[in-house]
TrEMBL record:
Domain Peptidase S24/S26A/S26B/S26C: 25-135
Lineage: Bacteria, Pseudomonadati, Bacteroidota, Bacteroidia, Bacteroidales
Annotated protein name in UniProt: Translesion error-prone DNA polymerase V autoproteolytic subunit
MF GO annotations: DNA binding; DNA-directed DNA polymerase activity; hydrolase activity
Species of the source: Caecibacteroides pullorum
Gene3D superfamilies named among the record's database cross-references: Umud Fragment, subunit A (2.10.109.10)
Recorded superkingdom: Bacteria
EC numbers on record: 2.7.7.7
Cell division is among the record's keywords: no
Length: 146
């Protein structure tokens, strides 16, 4: 298994309020643009609910590409959340981190990629396995290099 995530600490020592379109951004028909935005949003406060147990991870590899998670994307990972069936999780398996959907079938745990080029991973008693954290947000660059 290849390393497919780089883990980084969260730094909440600064605040950077950014203008916020509080009336929403339409994905359908355009609406008149707001002349100015009075609201501000701090992404640290919006995305980080449990600072002491939250980390960032940068995706390496393409095993989750069909889910829209691509190399270079940043994951917000919360270690304080309990796993729920179908969660996107960062798992520690036999000494390496991986990000996968977790499927539980009876007593069997499967780590499910979102790319048909990769097999599902069956977790057995022989594996050194831990659900390290639950992915709560994916931050991605929408303008890719050409």
């Amino acid at each position: 298994m290849k390393k497919n995530i780089e883990i980084h600490l969260v730094d909440l020592s600064t605040s950077l309020p950014l203008p916020y379109a509080d009336e929403g951004i339409r994905a359908g028909f355009p609406s008149p643009a707001q002349d100015y935005m009075e609201q501000a949003i701090d992404l640290n406060k919006e995305l980080i609910k449990h600072p002491s147990s939250t980390f960032y991870g940068r995706v390496v590899g393409d095993s989750m590409k069909d889910e829209g998670i691509e190399e270079g994307d940043i994951l917000v990972i919360n270690k304080s959340l309990e796993l729920i069936e179908g969660d996107l999780a960062v798992c520690y398996v036999d000494g390496e981190f991986t990000v996968k959907r977790v499927s539980i079938e009876g007593d069997t745990v499967w780590l499910v990629p979102s790319n048909p080029s990769y097999p599902r991973i069956k977790v057995t008693a022989d594996n050194d396995f831990l659900v390290w954290g639950i992915v709560t947000y994916t931050i991605k660059k929408n303008r890719r290099r050409r």
